């Protein structure tokens, strides 16, 4: 999912950038998870500063075991070597739950201001959650469901390896969210109102991404400037490319080279909204590599499907509100925040709408009741690009 600040009116993130400020960082901080046990006040201070003033961080010494990371780095890229017919069988158009394979689509042209083209393939999956939707239930309950996996004999160990990775990152995401909450002067559980107790109504999502590289000499884009729609994004850079870039608050693009043993974490639009922009979603992009393909794995955490983003007011202490106000002042932006109408809708409805708009083929096959609403003239000839979609 992407909320492209350049072409999506929903994003509102084309924040006017001020002149040189102290927020003009050129490096992304590394936050050491171990400090959360050995020196929690320092950990929370560093986390708060990174979250409010930067919006990107590396998380080092985290809880996902090294062997789980090593295995997923080795295994995940193999998906793309499957024969085309095996990948086609797993195409997202075969999944009611928007899992599966999306191939490079040369018509996926956007970001016209930058003259970029997005060029990447992806394998989308989620945890082993059963679909509980039954006739008469809200359609958004179909968002939950098993991913599409390659047959075991074609890629032995693939499903288990990716699910093991997924489960570890999901677990980390809940722990990390509690620390984010504490760093903002709230109780560890304060953000839990956006989740459900047993986490069964959440559907974090994961993508394995392959950026094949530009071959035509044109300025290529793996993925153009965008902010994520997620709550928080946990990114594992599998290869050594230095083509991920984030935009600092002054508008400069800063490289985020891979660092062994870390995740890159960035803030998504959902977290921006529920914190009323105390934590701003952060623009980033991936340039097309010129040599061998780049691989990465992105995990997007999410809120419960029956949560309304506008439904809860977090009670931030004055020092946090002051940090936000100081940031906004330096940037010369208004501190005002207003929810949009759809922030009063159930998150499941909003997410489903975005996905149906991005994937007409899934809409037609699996959501026949909703299809005419979004496609009154039938299925468009050219696929709508995935860039307008939120995770
Ligand atoms: O591949 C990456 O490093 C970043 C991917 C990304 O930003 C996204 O899929 O939203
Ligand atoms: Fe992203």
From TrEMBL:
The keyword Oxidoreductase applies. Gene3D superfamilies: B-lactam Antibiotic, Isopenicillin N Synthase, Chain. Residues 200-303 form the Fe2OG dioxygenase domain. Pfam families: 2OG-FeII_Oxy, DIOX_N. Keywords: Iron, Metal-binding, Oxidoreductase. Residues 1-23 are annotated as: Disordered. PANTHER family: 2OG-FE(II) OXYGENASE FAMILY, PUTATIVE (AFU_ORTHOLOGUE AFUA_2G00750)-RELATED (PTHR10209:SF885), OXIDOREDUCTASE, 2OG-FE II OXYGENASE FAMILY PROTEIN (PTHR10209). Belongs to the iron/ascorbate-dependent oxidoreductase family. This is Fe2OG dioxygenase domain-containing protein. It comes from Marasmius crinis-equi.
């Amino acid at each position: 999912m992407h909320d492209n600040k350049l072409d999506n009116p929903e994003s509102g993130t084309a924040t006017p950038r001020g002149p040189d400020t102290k927020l003009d960082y050129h490096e992304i901080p590394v936050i050491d998870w171990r400090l959360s046990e050995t020196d929690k006040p320092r950990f929370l201070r560093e986390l708060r500063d990174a979250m409010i003033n930067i919006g990107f961080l590396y998380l080092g010494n985290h809880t996902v075991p090294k062997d789980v990371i090593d295995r997923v780095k080795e295994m995940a890229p193999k998906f793309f070597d499957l024969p085309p017919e095996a990948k086609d069988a797993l195409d997202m158009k075969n999944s009611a739950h928007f899992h599966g394979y999306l191939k490079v689509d040369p018509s996926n042209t956007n970001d016209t201001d930058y003259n970029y083209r997005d060029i990447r393939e992806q394998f989308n999956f989620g945890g082993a959650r059963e679909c509980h939707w039954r006739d008469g239930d809200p359609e958004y309950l179909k968002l939950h469901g098993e991913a599409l996996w390659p047959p075991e004999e074609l890629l032995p160990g693939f499903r288990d390896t990716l699910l093991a990775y997924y489960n570890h990152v999901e677990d980390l995401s809940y722990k990390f969210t509690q620390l984010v909450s504490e760093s903002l002067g709230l109780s560890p559980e304060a953000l839990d109102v956006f989740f459900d107790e047993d986490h069964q109504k959440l559907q974090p999502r994961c993508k394995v991404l392959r950026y094949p590289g530009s071959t035509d000499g044109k300025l290529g884009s793996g993925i153009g400037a965008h902010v994520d729609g997620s709550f928080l994004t946990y990114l594992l850079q599998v290869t050594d490319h230095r083509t991920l870039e984030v935009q600092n608050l002054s508008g400069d693009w800063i490289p985020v080279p891979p660092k062994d043993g870390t995740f890159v974490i960035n803030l998504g639009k959902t977290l921006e909204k529920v914190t009323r922009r105390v934590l701003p979603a952060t623009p980033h992009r991936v340039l097309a590599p010129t040599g061998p393909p780049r691989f990465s794995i992105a995990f997007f955490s999410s809120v419960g499907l029956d949560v309304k983003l506008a439904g809860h007011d977090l009670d931030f202490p004055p020092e946090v509100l002051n940090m936000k106000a100081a940031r906004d002042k330096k940037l010369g932006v208004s501190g005002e925040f207003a929810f949009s109408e759809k922030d009063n809708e159930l998150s499941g409805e909003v997410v489903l709408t975005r996905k149906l708009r991005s994937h007409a083929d899934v809409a037609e096959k699996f959501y026949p009741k909703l299809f005419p609403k979004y496609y009154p003239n039938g299925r468009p000839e050219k696929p709508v690009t995935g860039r307008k979609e939120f995770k």
